[in-house]
Amino acid sequence: MKEIIASRRTILLTSLIFLALVLWNAYSSVQLHKSYQHALMKSVTDSVLADYQEYLAQLRTDVIHFQGQNYTQIAALANKGPLASKEEYMQLLKLMKNQFSDLRLFAIIDNNAQGVLKHITGDFLDDCKDEIRTTVDVGSQEHLFLHRSSNSIHYDLLEPLNIPGKQGWYFFVAFNTTVFESLLIKYQLPHQELFLLRTDLIGKIELSTTTTTDEHIAGIEMSAEEVQMFSFVKEIPGTRWQLAIRQEPNYQSSILVKSVIKALILWLFASAIILAFYLFQRQRARSHYAIKKALEFNATHDALTGLMNRATFEQSLTNFISQAKDNPTHGVVLLVDIDQFQLINNGYGYAVGDSVLNFLSIELKRYLPENVACSRLGNDEFAILVPDLSFEHAQACANKLKQFINDLSYVTEESLIKLTASIGVLHIDTDQISRERIFNSLAQAVRIAKEKGRNRAQLYQSDDQALIQHAQEMSVIKDIDAALNENRFMLYRQHINALQGDINIPKYEVLVRLKSRQDEIIPPDHFIPACEKFGLITKLDRWVIEATCKSIADTGDNGHYSINLSGITLADKDIKEFVSNMFEKYHINPNRIGFEITETYAITHLESATKFIGQMSEMGCEFSLDDFGSGLSSFSYLQQLPVHHIKIDGSFIKDICNNRLNQVFVETMHKLAKEMGKDCIAEFVEDKATQEHLIELGIEFAQGYYHHRPEKWFEY
Fold it and tell me: Which SMART domains does the protein's record reference (predicted)?
């Protein structure tokens, strides 16, 4: 019994809260509508004001132009004055009415504010006389207003009479108010009222959209309280008018009543299912006000599926990684790649393909717990971050997800589409502590899953050889990052021996080694490939360049040093500036530095290689083409590469004494190089016989263990 009472109280409380929400929604809607109407009325007022001013300005221009066109007739009437005939007047009036549709009559006013054609037009109304007298006294018409008779309403325009000898005279033209009335009606919007009020007579209505022509003629006045109800009141320059606008008196209250009635109906309907519908309805009500939040949602979520987009997922992953450093036991990322999705696009069209992706996204959102981050990375790839999943349960979770996708069926008008997915699974630990490495590792796992036949989940930490290798590479990359920060890289050097005579300056090749935290020396073939693969090689090359310059500066060494550059570094648009800065920082003569680039990269990226070689050669640096003969081996490219030395690959040198083909190749290579003005350096010279054979062939330099084993040269 107590539980029932408690439930009733909960339902009642929830219902009252919901009622408050829907009433707030109604109030907010009214306020929003009020703001909109306020902005709308301001716009209408500005538009009518602009049109009135434009119309009056154009009308005055047309009157002036008419004077010019009919100067002779107007001058004749002015000069004759009381002697002018009605026929002459009517003839000119007819011409004027053809041009001005709202024209009533015209007259000529002398400098005493008297009409010289009163015997034809009759005497003026008192309002007309008032405006004429004011205009003549002031010298211009600055207080335009409407004039009323017993059966009509009009306004007058007075423009100076451009006739010699008639200084201070005016050309008087009376117009009906049709255009003014039509402009008010033109801009009148539903539930709005527009008024033309007198500025000098508070409450005096000249024209309005709520009064008839007869009422305009009679004239209507409103109280000061009614005048205060206008939303906008603006004066029209050069007139005695104010343009005013307001909403219909009962409009706001009717909007409020309608909004409240709708809110009550919605509340009565929702109360019946309040327990099941409350949270959804509250969220819906909030969304009506949250335009900004909706825009933020679009910026952080995929437009097709509604899942978070790649950038948002990456940020969530970054935030989780920072927390995982303190608690690395939980947290799994899954990369879901739909198998052969391109076949769906090709077979059913991209519209169906998009529908399938949207269908899958909806099902994933239903399937996954609320605390799981799910994202569409692009195309047919989805990423899922399960923050509280341990490594032990990761494989089982991925298998369940795979089976869930297998069980889905998308029905088209013609067939049934079944889906399978290859899923990469990765436990977030200290070895995968950056999001770039996480995605790289997941991609490796997905690739292995597809190679094994698709429709399977591949755990990254498995006994698969490819993944083991990738994990080892990740470990190396992590150690390289730390070594660069801790200055655990070391420079070695190996002497390059001159075979044809002595040279004054000793030549060396700069070699890099990595020292572990246990002081073990790690050779380059253990870390250089990983650096190139995962984008750290440029950072390492720059370290070697600066360390070489620093060592030369610190020791005063007078040797010539040749530094290996990777293809990625060679393509770096900022590398020339960096090298120049190092030369300047350590006061290094560029003639002391050379660079070695591999044959394969130089030939496949001929343009960028040639450009960099040319720029640095102008500074005085030398270049060697490394491992020549091991790659593309096209002698024609040598003519296009402005290198100074060719380093013959060691595979042609090791058994040159016993291999006739290698002898011929090296001899031919040397002859061509000599014709092009380039020296040859033989690599891997390991015994005396090999060196003597190279001397016989005329090879200029040799490098290898026979002459000099690499020695430690520089360490921070």
Answer: EAL (SM00052), GGDEF (SM00267)
